[in-house]
Amino acid sequence: MPLILSLDTSTAICSVALHSTEGSLSSSLLGSYELFTERTSSAMLTTLISDIVRQAGYELTQLDAIAVAKGPGSYTGLRIGVSTAKGLCFALDKPLLAINTLTAMAEQVRSFYPTDYILCPMIDARRMEVYCALYNTDGQEMQPTTAQIIDEQSFDEWLAQKPVVFFGDGAAKCEALLGGHVNAHFPTIPIHPSARTVGQLAIVAYARSEFEDTAAFEPFYLKDFMAIKPKKAPF
Q1: How crowded is residue 150: how many other Cβ atoms within 10 Å of its Cβ?
Q2: How much is the mean pLDDT over the chain?
Q3: Which domains does the chain have, with CATH numbers?
Q4: pTM of whole model > 0.70?
């Protein structure tokens, strides 16, 4: 029964989860923490990790793998999550699993929609841009992860075919422009990245031995980091 610790710091929400398995692929959630803050720090993350493992009655050395949401998302958040996961893998001599953040978001909602729906998780990428991908309700990817600028013609091809569910913190941009379309759906309950569904997908990845090269692994930033220049002082 593999014991897998999962981390998600793709956005301002920092989350950890601990899963075990029953049988081959079914998973049992032993515990999870979600911290809603403006900034994720490595200190916050390591505290949540130690607490969840201890309170579940285990030691870090008993973990079988570490899973992390690889992105896309916040540059700083992903860097913190991946560096923490890699540090644990090296210290404990455990394998690393990496899960696409948007795929894990789609996993949260896919059982709630009919098979003729398309799922579009979105993460805010500033201004009118979002990170997004398209999935069917079986969890299969229909359009790969991209950075997309939203306008009135966005997703026309898909909306002409089937109902599309837009969700995540980037969906508000889309709702303002596409909310009037008969096939555009926007859940009223906020849906955000979570280590809980990262862990569910990590169970499957573990069974398939889909491990990363820990030393070489980098977050899926999708775009190059762009630093904001500080404003000059007026004197």
Answers
A1: 23
A2: 91
A3: 3-102+192-207 (3.30.420.40), 113-185 (3.30.420.40)
A4: yes
